Amino acid sequence: MQKGSRFALVAVLIGAVSMPALSHHSGAMFEDRLTLELTGTVTHFDYVNPHSWLYVNIENEDGTITEWGFELDAPPRLRRIGVSPNFWREGDRVTVRTRPLKDGRPAGFLVGAVSDQDRTFGNSDGLSVN
Amino acid sequence: MAKHSYGGMLALSAGVLAAITLIGGMKGSGVARAQSAASDCVPLKSQYPDLGTSQSVSARREFTTVWGSFELPGGPCGYESAEAHYEALLADAMSRGGPTRHSLTSLPDWSGHWGTENSTGELAIVGLNSDYEGMAVRLTPEAREQFEFDARMWRENHAIDPISFCLPPNFPRWFTEYGYREQFLTPDKTVLGSEMVNEFRRVFTDGRSHPSDEWMTNEWLGYSIGFWDEDVLVIWTRGIKEGILQRNMPRQTNQMEVIERWKKVNPVEAGVDIAVNTLGAAHIPEERIEIEVTMYDPTFVEPWHTVVAYYKDDDRSPEQKEIVWPHQWDCVEGSQWYITNDGVVSQYAPGEKPDITNPDFWFDEDYVHQ
After folding, report:
1. Helix (H) or strand (E) holding B249
2. How many Cβ atoms sit within 10 Å of the Cβ of residue B240?
3. Residue B348, helix vs strand vs coil
4. Residue B261: is it exposed, middle or buried by C-beta count within 10 angstroms (0-12/13-18/19+)?
5. B68-126 residue pLDDT tens
6. What whole-number distance in Å separates Cα of residue A112 and Cα of residue A31?
7. What distance in Å separates the CA atoms of residue B183 and residue B114, rounded to the nearest whole number?
8. What is the DSSP letter of B56?
9. B216 in contact with chain A, both atoms CB, cutoff 8 A
10. Distances in whole angstroms, Cα of residue B10 to Cα of each of A32, B88, B91, B92, B344
């Protein structure tokens, strides 16, 4: 996604996308049939229990920046699928697919992601950082 | 596939009873089932043949075992109580010269880091048929009514899961959680560890009984005693807190008691083809631990029996040694979960939650009072 369109979100209604289970809490706060695709710059990746969080600065259409948080699974599960604590680093460009919070605040469940460091996560089909 | 059955167990003889007294563990109240007389019982799987109550739905697929049996121990409707179940297992071991008194060198090798195959889906756990109908038929009318209410709460996002508040998963929910599993075996005590919430169960095999009523409490993991029957560890657990079997599953009372049988197997040697769900982790196919789990609760119309399995993480290579590291589980620092004023679950967005691991949070007055 290029400038001017970063907050012109690509909203995709999904049918039956397979989601990883949220083991620590219910996933009720996230949209279950709506996903967004957002591009931005990683600020930090918190590799913590019970859920890890990827934080990304997303540029809005008016040029302002909003930091979004995307929830992932816990480190014990991330280790098993090869996601290290440095899988994403500050400054990486990423495009993420997320199920956002229903109330519009800037956070969501991370469905998939690609980075300019050629790292892919989850359901990243069709995602591009370019 | 080898199957193990304890059907047709002989009644306890006076000699066996005397020996049981020696090893201890017989004191305590067994939990009587609602369906009392075994002779007039009708097994659930006969009453509800279409509900698949004879096979666990585990990891959303067929669950194959080498040794663990899905047959309900104790006959068509099971034992009357956990105590009766434990007595029968002990009597069986004694009839063959047991229980086995191990030394440090004769104990089986359960070392390493393991993962539970049952932690790959919320409902893929202690569930014989984990769908709603399959679980509801297992409950007494009162418990079913409660379960129906709870299910509605879950659907409407009002239900509260204790572990979302960073409380521990109670037992036997302990089996369903993820993270590394570790076992530490000594002749008198076996410690069964789970990385999630840093939980360690202590199973005493030194002949002690459960605590008397004077000392008994209800704990997250209960009180576990057991004995070795050759390379099988038999465990009887009582004194568990009331809770839920898992999210979207029925409640359990503080009278829940659980019988387990643990054994390490070699699927390759046994010629059993098992599609292990490791989430992608490297594992050692020759090593697997299978655990028969039988739950007794006054709210169950029949003992609830299933099989859990652990796969062994392969950390033999330098690359895997870098990855396989159990950690202290801190639930609070990473939890972003809260309940809104409307009573539904929600999540903090960036900047909304103070960084409680930042020392400024504790010492900076402005930060604290923001």
Report:
1. none
2. 27
3. coil
4. buried
5. 988 899 999 999 999 999 999 999 999 999 999 999 999 999 999 999 876 543 333 44
6. 15
7. 9
8. B
9. no
10. 55, 8, 8, 8, 54
Exposed, middle or buried by CB within 10 Å (0-12, 13-18, 19+), for B341?
exposed
Question: Cβ(B259)–Cβ(B294) under 8 Å?
Answer: yes
A30, A41, A47, A48: best to mutate for the B interface, most B CBs within 10 A = A48
The dihedral through the CA atoms of B243, B246, B250, B255 has a sign that is negative
Residue B58 CB contacts under 8 Å (≥ 6 apart), including other chains:
B117, B118, B124, B125, B127, B306, B307
* DSSP symbol at B61: B
As a whole number, mean pLDDT of residues B356-364 equals 74
* pTM, rounded to two decimals: 0.82
The total number of residues shown for chain A amounts to: 130
Which residue of chain A has the CA closest to B321? A79
Note whether B151 contacts A: Cβ–Cβ < 8 A: no
Average pLDDT on B261-270 reads 98
Reading the block at residue B302, the tokens are: 């029949």
Q: Are A107 and A70 in contact (CB under 8 A)?
A: yes
Cα–Cα distance for residue pair B27/B87, rounded to 1 Å: 11
State the Cα angle at B22 between B20 and B23, rounded to 5°: 70
**Residue bearing tokens 């109550």:** B53
Provide the chain B residues 263-302 that lie in CB contact (below 8 A) with chain A: 278-281
Q: What is the Cα Rg of chain B in Å?
A: 22
Residue B209 DSSP one-character state: P
Residue B155, min C-alpha distance to chain A (Å): 9
